[in-house]
Structures are given as C-alpha cells and as structure tokens.
Amino acid sequence: MFRLETAENPQTLRRIAIEPLTRVEGHGKVTLLLDDADHVHQVRLHIVEFRGFEIFIEGRPFWEVPVTVQRLCGICPVSHLLAATKAMDLIAGYDRLTPTAEKIRRLMHYGQVMQSHALHFFHLSSPDLLLGFDSEPTRRNIVGVAREFPEIAKQGVFLRKYGQEVIRHTAGKRIHGTGAVPGGVNKGISRAERDEMRRDIDRMIEWALSAVHLVAELHRAKPEFYDHFGEFSSAMMSLVAADGAMDFYHGGLRALDADGGTIFDGVDYGGYQQVLEEQVKPWSYMKFPHIRSLGPENGWYKVGPLARVQTCDRIPTPLAEMERRKLVARGEGKPVMGTLYYHWARLIELLHATEVIRDLLDDPDLLGSDLMADKGERRSEAVGVIEAPRGTLFHHYRVDENDQVTFCNLIVSTTNNNQAMNEAIRSVALSHLDGKTITEGLLNHIEVAIRAYDPCLSCATHALGKMPLEVDLVDAEGTLVQRARRNMGPAR
Amino acid sequence: MSDDATFMLDGRPIRFEAGQSILQAALAAGAFIPNLCHHPEFAPHGSCKLCTVKVNGRASSACTTRARAGQEVASDTPELNRHRRTLLQMLFVEGNHFCPGCEKSGRCRLQALAYDLEMLNPHYEHFYPPRPIDASHPDVMIDFNRCILCALCVRASRDVDGKNVFALAGRGTAQHLVVDCPSGKLGDTDFAATDKAAEVCPVGAILPKRVGFAVPIGDRPFDIEPISVQAAHRPQAEPRG
Predict the structure, then answer these.
(1) Distance from CA of B100 to the nearest CA of A (A)
(2) A63 and chain B in contact, CB less than 8 A
(3) Distance from A402 to chain B by nearest Cα, in Å?
(4) What's the helix, strand, coil split of chain B in %, to 5?
(5) For residue B144, which of B192, B106, B177 has the smallest C-alpha distance?
(6) Which residue, B46, B49, B185, is CA-closest to B177?
(7) What is the mean pLDDT of chain A?
(8) Residues in Cβ contact with A327 at an 8 Å cutoff, skipping those fewer than 6 apart
(9) Pick from B141, B187, B218: which is nearest to A61 by CB?
(10) Which residues of B touch A60 (CB under 8 A)?
(11) Contact criterion met (CB below 8 Å) for A208 and A159
(12) Mean pLDDT confidence for A270-282
C-alpha cells in the first residue's frame, strides 16, 4: 500500500476535492482526505477522462495511423507521429532508414523537444518560479513574466518559435504535419531551408544556456525549498543509446533504482512487456505501469527530463553535459529526487536539443535526397518507442494481412509518471497543506507539482492562473464546511 | 460581344463548341464552376449539384445543360455559393470525413471546394454512419466513410475498364456504393490497381495501399493554389487532385 493512497477509515475523514484539474487535453482531479486535526490521510490524482484512440484506430490502414494518433496531443504531436511511424517502419518491412531520413526525423524530434520544453518552462512554469507560487494570481502568467522579466519572456517565445520552425521545415506544418512515413520521410531539406535554420541556432544555444543558469540559480538561492519541494524516492526509466548517451530518438530501455543502481539496461523496447506491466486501479482511468520484476508496490518509476539526465551516462553535446554534471553533483552520489529538479533537467535537455540541431544542420547527410529505405520482410506486430518531451512513449500495434490495425496499446509519458505524480502531490500535501487553511496559493502548490511532470496538464488550461479549481471542505456528515473556488464561473 | 457560339457567365463571355455543356465550356475557358461528380473523360452524372447555376434565371446543373448562344449564366453569386456550402455541409455530415487523418487531404476535391467556398463548419448534426473499410484487395482499399456517391468509379469501371465492379444501390439516404461480387469484397473481384476506376475518386474513398502521405504538406495540389485558381490558370487540365 502506498503512503497516503488509501485511508484506513475514510468515512471518518473530511474530503477536499480539487476538480477539475485540467490535464492532458481533458480533466483530472485531486482529492484529499483529512481528519479533524487537518492531518492528511489520503491524496489521489484521479484522471477522469477517456480518450479512446487505441480503439478507434482499430480497422484503419497502418500507414494512416501515425498521422491520426499524433492528434492525441497539440504540444508533442511529433513524438506520437514518430513513435507510431517507428512501429510502422517495422510493420511495412523497413528495418533501417537511410542516413538522410533518420537525420531529418531526428531534426524534427529535437525541434519538437525544444519547442515543447520552451513552452513548458517559459510560458507555463516560469510564472510560478519567477513570480512566486503564491504571488498575485492575476499576474502569475506569461504576461506577468513579460512585464517583470521582458528579456526572459522574449527568449522563451523565440526559443519555442525556433523549435516550431524546425518542425515546419521537416513536417510541412508547425503542428500536426506529416514528414515521417513508414520507411523514411516524405520531405527532404533544401539548402535554403538548412541555411535559414542555421542562421539563428547559435543564438538559441546561448539563450538555452542562460535559461539553465536561471533555474540553477533558483536552486542555489533557496536550496532547501527548491531541492526538496515534492521530493520522494523512486526508480527512473528512459531510452539510452547503446553507448550510454542520452538519445531522444532511439535506444534501449534502462531503469535505475532510487540509489542509482541498475534494474535493467539495454532492453530492446520491442519486448517492453517483459520488463513492464500495467496495473488498473478503480479510482482512475489511467493505468499504473510498473517494472514487472519488482511488482506494483515497488516497481513504479518516473520518466521525463529528471529521469533522463540521470539514467544516461552522459549527454553527447558539450554544454549540456557540463550542465548535467552540475545537476547530478547536487545529489552527492545519489540521484536527486525533488520535483522542481524537473525544470532544471528540462532546460538542460532544451540546451542539448539546440546543440543537436546545430550538429544536424552541419551534417551533409541532412541535405541528401535518399529519403526512403529498401523494403524487407513485413511484420504483423511492432513496437515504436521514443523519448517524448515529457518521457518515454510506447506505441504497440498489430496489423493484419489486409494492412488493417487489429490492436493498439499506447503508454504515454503521463501514464508512466502516474504514480510519480501521485507521490509528488502527496509530498506537497504533507509539507504544505497539512493542517492549514486552504488558500489559492496552496492550491497552486499542488498545480506546481503536477505541472512539473506534465506540461499538457497545464497547457490545457489555456492561460496560466486560469486553471479552474474548486475545493470543498466537507465534514463527516457530508456538510459543506468551506468552499474555495477559482475560475469556476458563477457559484452554483 | 455575344455571337453564335458565346454565352455570358457572370458577365464574362464564354465561347463554346457545339455539344459542350456550360460546365465544359466554362472550364475550358478557365472559368471555374464548382463541381464534384464531373470528370472531363466521362459523361455527366448530374448528381452532386455543386455546379448548379442559373441559366436565364432558372436553376440548372451546368454539367448537364447544353451551352447555347446568348445564355445569361450566373454562377459566382452569394445565393448560389450559399446553396453550394449547404450541399458541402450535407456531404460532410452524411459520411465520416475526418480530414486531419485522411491521406487525400490536400488532394481532395471535397476538401478543396469546402475551403474555396469558405465552408467554416459542418452546421448540421453529424450522422456518424457505421461504415467499415474494405481492405480485402491487395493493392487498393475502399474507405466507404468518405464516399460521396459521385459514381465516378461506377462510370470508370463500366465505361473504361469494362468490368462493372461498382454500382450504387439503395435510394435516398440509404444509397451506398456496392461491389459487384457475391462477397461484396473488392478482393474477390477482378479489379486492378491499374484500372481507371482506381484513380478517379475525387475524395479519399478509393485509395492505393501503402503510399499514403507520400507527398509532403506544401507540395500537394491544393496546398499550392485553391481549386478555383488552379482551374483558371490551367483551363485545359482541370485539377483532379
């Protein structure tokens, strides 16, 4: 049983519900159960939406699937496009891409990571970090950041724009393009396009490095708060290149325990079901994946930037590796676990993405015209995995002899982080809400913890500080004691 | 300026040859009249009604109305374009046309016309008809979700391929495309990917397999120019997507 997952005698406790939390293109809620002395006994992040993509692509032709499933997300569609296409490469009989095709896909993906990370940090999270978690809510947004820190806001906007332009050049559109098709890519990169992207990349690297330093300074200035907010121990998992380097596009699965010891390494992701298992819980539509050998109690893990910078042996670009070492050093030999480290790690990855983009733009293979690989033996089942901006993303398909999809299983980053997000808000509830009167600022502490994991959650609010929240304090008889509302429209 | 072989289309003189329809003459002159079931290689079908114009004040299908000297034809009018948008909206809601995931996007005449006529929403409630796809043929699939009953495949298979693979069955809202074989499956017919019927579909209903999305966004025919502009620029080769 997890700490604070299920209270022993819930009927004797008061229930606080934060509902709706806006989440990945949908809704979630947080519930807390407290006793009369305001001590927290139960905290749950419930995911109450149902998407259904796995079902409604059944029967569709396999080459259509990557373009359709990318509509799962408006922030990281490229990740879904590429994960699905990697699976369909194998279904269609393409085992190895041409160098040009793989590099164009990598360029697209690192552009995606760049824009998504920039969006998450600057537009969605920097208001909390720069203006204060409980600062005036009407100013705790990107406009407020632009007012107080105009240069930082400008750099954030342009970093994101640059990533979007990389996607446009490789996928044809900034959002929901095509680009990757089974066997390769449908669009080459012209010299003019390459030169256009090359023109600004050095400035992007410079700004990304500044952003890393900005967050590092926040930790340095308030280490007790920043290092330990939402802290809990967990295993970590990501793809890692064969040589142990960070790689967002391809690699083997590696999982480390909370002390940094290896749980598994170099696992071919095609066999992910041999090392991972998904558990269903009655109070959430989102499954709880865990490492099979450790079971559901001990085998849960976290994914995404904070996992990746610590599961890899190194980052294969110099500036990002230098910054990674500074972050890792904070753990003094053990992995760092504070939730706010996610932002620091995310910006190191943003820096890495800019460096990779520069290197790809300087690679002559990028301008090649050999876009499609030679076709080999078809398969009826395949898995595609990629490191999406917010974590490891699994796409698993079966396709029949008529080319129609018969089975699909998606484990998206948010799902991988399900238990971790629950642990994060339990940690925050204990350290910040326990025994206190509910305030908007305290509600935002929970948002801050969730937001650190899943930018889609905060993205879907459309405007920072606008996330609709309603917290009811109800006594054991069900009588409403106190209600705190924010952005819920007229009181009901 | 009117003479024996000229009619007026929206105030512009259009010359025609004997036997041409108003639509044929207009397209040949680079004057676009919206159309879906028309194909220059086949006899007119007159079913989609997108090409409805007013000839001397009376509504007629431009594809089935002979061009005659001195006709006053109105096509690009707010009233007719409003009716055309309504027809397009009904076509969209009667089937399952999900452009974001459709490989015909950017090459689809239904989508191109909807853009061209500024159809901003489906307006009507979607029918969401349950229509499974037929992927039984090794090289070509039929996605019945997107069929608009233009009968171009029927005409091509009958008139060019000599196979009669397709027919329209049922009436009214129950009308649907059928495949002529006991199983009703395309894979059980002598249909071939090289048939004319495999290339005439104006929407994403009849598609070659495993080649979807080969053309990048930006290079697809209707990415480059709207369908009406293309018709004006290349009157002899009306865009087929």
Answers:
(1) 7
(2) yes
(3) 6
(4) 30, 15, 55
(5) B177
(6) B185
(7) 88
(8) A216, A309, A336, A341, A344, A345, A348
(9) B141
(10) 101, 133
(11) yes
(12) 88
Cα B92 from chain centroid?
A: 13
Pick B135's closest partner by Cβ from A61, A177, A186.
A61
- Angle among Cα B106, A114, A170 to the nearest 5 degrees reads 30
Q: Which of A70, A175, A186, A193 to probe the B interface (max B CBs under 10 A)? A: A186
Selection from A112, A122, A60, A123 nearest residue A83 by Cα: A112
Q: Read out DSSP for A417-473?
A: THHHHHHHHHHHIIIIITTS---HHHHHHHHHHHHHH-HHHHHTTSSTT---EEEEE
Indicate yes or no: CB of B135 within 8 angstroms of CB of A187: no
Distance, in Å, from the CA atom of B220 to the CA atom of A363, rounded to the nearest integer, reads 28
CB contact under 8 A, A404 and B133: yes
Q: Check B135 against A67: CB less than 8 A apart.
A: no
Contacting residues of B for A63, CB less than 8 Å apart: 103, 209-213
Residue B1's pLDDT is what?
A: 45
Residue numbers in B near A187 (CB within 8 A): 216-219
Q: Which residues of B touch A182 (CB under 8 A)?
A: 210
Q: Which of A60, A173, A181 sits opposite B213 (nearest CB)?
A: A181
| Nearest one of A156, A183, A189 to A360, comparing CA atoms | A189
CA B223 to CA B219: how far, in whole Å?
6
Cis peptide before A20 (omega within 30 of 0): yes
Give the position of tokens 């300074």.
A217
* Partner residue opposite A172 with nearest CB, options B136, B209, B216: B216
The residue type at B89: Q
Residue A254 host element (H or E): strand A252-256
Spatial separation of the C-alpha atoms in residues B72 and A159, rounded to whole Å: 58
| Residue A171 touches chain B, beta carbons under 8 Å | yes
Q: What confidence score (pLDDT) does residue A376 get?
A: 94
* Residue A411 token pair: 């484990």
ipTM exceeding 0.90, yes/no: yes
Query: Which chain B residues are closer than 8 Å to A189 by Cβ?
Result: none
pLDDT in tens, A372-393: 999 999 999 999 999 999 899 9
- CB-CB: which of A64, A68, A172 is closest to B218? A172
Tokens of B13: 């003189």
Question: What is the pLDDT averaged over residues A240-257?
Answer: 98
Distance CA A364, CA A206 (A): 24
SS3 A359: helix
Q: Could you give the CA distance from residue A305 to residue A344 in angstroms, rounded to a whole number?
A: 9
The verdict on a CB contact (< 8 Å) between A179 and B212 is: no
CA distance B236 to A375: 39
pTM score = 0.90
Residue B175 or residue A52, greater confidence: B175
Q: Compare all CA atoms of chain A with the CA of B217 and give the residue at the minimum distance.
A: A172
| pLDDT, tens digit (0-9, with 9 covering 90-100), for A178-234 | 999 999 999 999 999 999 999 999 999 999 999 999 999 999 999 999 999 989 999
| B193 vs B178: CA distance, rounded Å | 18
